[in-house]
Amino acid sequence: MRGEHFRCKQRHIEKYQKLQNKSTQETETKNSDELPENIDRWVVNLSDKQLTVPEKKLLARGLNFVVTSSHVPVDEFIVCTENAVRILGFNSPASAELRAKTAGILRTAKPPVSNISREERTALKDLKADKTISILPADKGRATVVLNKQDYLDKAQKLLDDQNTYERLTKDPTSQYKTKLVNILQRLLKDNVITYPEKRKLHPTSADTPKFYGLPKIHKTEVPLRPIVSCMGSISYDVARFIADIIGPLAGNTPYHLKNSLELVEKLSTVKIEDDEVLISYDVSALFTSTPVDQSITIIRDLLEMDDSLYERSNLNPDQVIELLTFCLKTTYFQFNECLYRQREGAAMGSLVSPIVANLFMEDFEDRAIKTAPHPPKVWYRYVDDSFCIIKSAHVDEFTHHINSINGAIKFTTEPEVNNCIPMLDTLITRQPDGSLTCGVYRKPTHTDQYLNFGSHHRLQHKLGVIRTLTHRANTIIIREDKQQEMNHIKQCLHQCGYEPWVFAVSDNKEKDKQKAKYQNRPPAKGSVVIPYVQGVSETVARLFQAKGIRTHYKPVNSVRQNLVAPKDKTASEQRSGTVYHITCEDCPAAYVGESERTLSTRLTEHKRKSNASSPVSQHAQAAKHTIAWKDVKVLDQDSNWFNRGVREAINIRRHPSSLNIDKGRHQLPPVYEPVLSHDIASSSCDIPDQ
Questions:
Q1: pTM over 0.85
Q2: Are 332 and 187 members of one domain?
Q3: Could you point out which of 5, 14, 66, 280 has its C-alpha 20 to 30 Å from the C-alpha of 563?
């Protein structure tokens, strides 16, 4: 009974939100010339382009703002439904019922009412089409920055011209690295320390070159860029994730390590500071690129050899773990502006193992530094590259010189307390006259007070989560001070982001309902799936899944970031992996839809072979003496997941001309979806953009 009441209440809240969003949209449309009060903090235009009012309004909503789509993403719903069916069993009655009911919902589904004005939709298209500018998130503070495209390229190139850190490559090393990794994996499989499924998972089927880009530091003069490398889809990405799970538990086991600001507050609650002591923070300059790789590997090897629980996490011995780790750390090449570079020193930027390696190195470094210091600090706590310290004022210079002399690659900068206060993480630490330390919420000068806009096409629960997160931080960080001032600040900031007073009341009630829900007896879920969020459609589909014991998670789609932020080099279509593709004939209507986990160029090379009897494309070209339109091959969809890609192939075989296909794809998509795929709300275009 309680559960039904809770679900009924959920539906009423969501209906209310829909009406509220509609009212908000109508008001905004009438007042299209009004700009947010914080527009200059939220949108920083450093380009020559004069932004129009609708463009400013759109960007001021934030890059995480999700715009309602003009269509229902049918493909995504079918893929997640088939994932649920996979959990339930393909031939079970529950699966047949789930498919039928989901297809029925999708046949009548309609996209939600637009949450932005017509002028803003036009602005979104115009900004996306403008190739003279680059739109990026600021390095800190959530601001949206608009740069001249050439200025962005020049700033990035200035970083890469530093020959002490980077070197230009004349040859693509991908194939060389790939061969090396394949040989390592074959040997580990032969030694029976990894299983065949693990080897398949780690095998580099995708060979995307890591991409370099930068985020503007608008708080610094000349607005330099913070360098970042994206390794998604690279040959070392899956191996790095595998190794990160093995070496991750080695970190965070020292008394100096901080998990988060809450732990900092708890530790400082019992600390007393003397009159002759000072608060000071230490920051490591460029930690990742300064981390000595060979020393770090030695440290990690020693830790692995002393780790009694290693074989509970993996069958690999320390030498084998180190071999894979070394491969990840020294695969430091990347691409920018169609040129290849290599990072000379330090942990590979963008690799999943680099933060762990840097942390383990710093744990060894600070242990030696504090033990050998003539006058060590009374308190030393570190979070990644930021450290909080309490030390005698007379020993500050001595200690600073000491830690800067231990390793030539690691250099610290210092920041002393000001007016008895010093920031650490998102906490402002203040010394009191009695020697105790109190904590409050700290906001950097770059902080914009911008949070998820209430008009964004997210679930109401996601928006309530913003309130709960900020409230929780205030309740846990602020110890003695009156929290009302912080709560007033939160409400004021969120009001600027479109949150009305009723939302805070609902948030409070949600917290109470959340506590009650913990005590309700719920059967364990059989599995979980991720579904796209479309208001009114996703909730209905989720209820079907939950009735079958499938937990659902919502994924926002069509954000401003997805539409406008594209700082990385695009991967050419033929170099993309995990694609669903469409091949046509120049001389007749014959066509073929296929999929491949490898690069598209590799798969097309196989189709082009005259001797390939297994390729319907090759057979058609030989038998009919026709010419295949190889230059017009289109990528219809992309998915790195083998099962999902099979579903997408089956969908596109039904949607596009595919007379050369022998069957309907490797995934058997049931006929119940046919009316959905032929309906006007079919979601896929005939091509998807280059990455």
A1: yes
A2: yes
A3: 14
63 within some domain: yes
Q: Contact, 634 vs 625, CB < 8 A?
A: no
Mark whether 346 and 213 lie in a shared domain: yes
Tell me the backbone φ, ψ of residue 431, rounded to 5 degrees.
-85, 135
Please name the residues in contact with 159: beta carbons below 8 A apart, sequence gap of 6 or more.
165, 166, 214, 224, 225, 227
Q: What is the pLDDT of residue 389?
A: 98
Q: Are residues 650 and 662 in the same domain?
A: yes
Exposure class string for 391-430: b at 16+ Cβ within 10 A, else e? beeebbeebbebbbeebebbebeeeebeeeebbbbbbbbb
* Alpha carbon separation from 228 to 314, 369, 659 (Å, rounded): 30, 29, 45
With b for 16 or more beta-carbon neighbours within 10 A and e for fewer, the 578-595 pattern comes to bbbbbbbbeeeebbbbbb
List, for residues 328-372, the tens digit of each pLDDT value: 999 999 999 999 999 998 988 789 999 999 999 999 999 999 999
- Please give the pLDDT value at position 627: 96
**pLDDT for the residue 683:** 43
Output the pLDDT for position 518.
Answer: 55
- Residue linked to tokens 């309907």: 664
Q: Which two tokens stand for residue 485?
A: 């001032």
Q: Mark whether 456 and 499 lie in a shared domain.
A: yes
Containing domain of residue 199, as a range?
152-255+285-353
Instruction: Indicate whether 683 belongs to any domain.
Output: no
For residue 297, the model assigns a pLDDT of: 97
Residues 129 and 179 in one domain: no
Domain count, the chain: 3
Contact 220, 591 (CB under 8 A): no
Whether residue 207 sits in one domain with residue 318? yes
CA distances from 125 to 54, 120, 508 (A): 11, 9, 39
| Length of the chain in terms of residues written | 691
Q: Are residues 235 and 317 in the same domain?
A: yes
- The DSSP letter of residue 374 is S
Give the torsion through C-alpha atoms of 260, 264, 267, 269, to 10 deg. Answer: -130
What tokens were used for 448? 């914009």
3-state secondary structure 611-679: CCCCCHHHHHHHHHCCCECHHHCEEEEECCCHHHHHHHHHHHHHHCCCCCCCCCCCCCCCHHHHHHHCC
Rounded to 5 degrees, φ, ψ at 650 are -60, -40
**Three-state SS at 43:** strand
- Collect the ranges in the chain with pLDDT lower than 50: 26-32, 519, 680-691
On whether residue 133 sits in a domain, the answer given is yes
- List the Cα angle 552/508/522 in 5-degree steps: 35
- Looking at 563, 594, 618, which one is the last position of a domain? 563
Helix (H, G, I), strand (E, B) or coil at 294: helix
Whether 558 and 517 share a structural domain = yes
Q: Judge whether 389 lies within some domain.
A: no
| CATH number (domain holding residue 606) | 3.40.1440
What pLDDT score was predicted for residue 37?
A: 82
| Segments in 307-437 forming alpha helices (H) | 310-313, 318-329, 354-372, 396-404
